[in-house]
Amino acid sequence: MNRVSVTIDGIEYQITGEKNEAEIVKVAKFIDGELKQISKSAPSLSKISAAILTSVNIADKLFDSNLEVERLKKEIEEITENYSSKTIDVEKEFDSVLSKLEEAEKNAEELGKKVIVLEHELSRKDEIIRNNSANAPVVVDEDYEKKIKSLELYIKEMENKVAVAESMATEFQNKAYNIQLNYEELKKNIK
User: Fold this and answer.
1) HEC string of the chain?
2) Which residues have CB under 8 Å from 151's CB, separation 6+?
3) Residue 144: phi, psi to the nearest 5?
4) Taking CA atoms, which of 9, 52, 86, 98 is between 20 and 30 Å from 168?
5) What pairs with residue 13 in β-bridges?
6) Is the pLDDT of residue 166 over 90?
7) 22 and 14 Cβ atoms separated by less than 8 Å
């Protein structure tokens, strides 16, 4: 326990408290200043009335401060809840984008494999046709021509699908990056 000598309204008091000396002196000076201000603005008040009015004013300030503290606590809770909610939303959207990106990459890979198989088959059939045409008179089989054109169209279609899948993958990567930036900015704003 600390014992400190302070002066309030010209009277010396011995104050004992658990706070350090500087804090006790600070409180006493505050009370002395408030009391002097009341006495100055209403010189006709008795010392007891001035002390009571000072106590009422200090209590009023205390209540106002407590209300402000409660308001700030609620504001902090709301910000924290909003942050948590937004964080969860961002994480869900990020997971969704990553899932779609993985699916698009898988589709692009599968389509790429199909294109390679079809190109190989077309190449093999072209080789057969060349070998046959070198050894035999040129006879154009309409079924082969249709199959070749069909395969060529299918290859082009697969190449277009691969290009679309790659475009989607790029778009999802960009979205994932933007979501990550927004997430980091939210974290920074909350701190």
Assistant:
1) CEEEEEEECCEEEEEEECCCHHHHHHHHHHHHHHHHHHHHHCCCCCHHHHHHHHHHHHHHHHHHHHHHHHHHHHHHHHHHHHHHHHHHHHHHHHHHHHHHHHHHHHHHHHHHHHHHHHHHHHHHHHHHHHHHHHHCCCCCCHHHHHHHHHHHHHHHHHHHHHHHHHHHHHHHHHHHHHHHHHHHHHHHHHC
2) 118, 121, 122, 125
3) -65, -40
4) 86
5) 6
6) no
7) no
Max mean pLDDT range (35-44, 82-91, 102-111): 35-44
pTM reported for the whole predicted model: 0.46
Q: What residue type is 131 in one-letter code?
A: N
Q: Which two tokens stand for residue 104?
A: 């698009």
Distance CA 2, CA 19 (A): 7
Highest mean pLDDT among 32-41, 96-105, 160-169: 32-41
In this prediction, residue 33 carries a pLDDT of 96
Q: Over pLDDT 90: what percentage of the chain? A: 38
Who's near 122: CB < 8 A, 6+ residues apart? 148, 151, 152, 155
Quickly count: other Cβ atoms within 10 Å of residue 90's Cβ. 17
Please determine, for residue 137, whether its predicted confidence score (pLDDT) is greater than 70. no
pLDDT per position as a tens digit, 74-88:
998 888 887 777 777
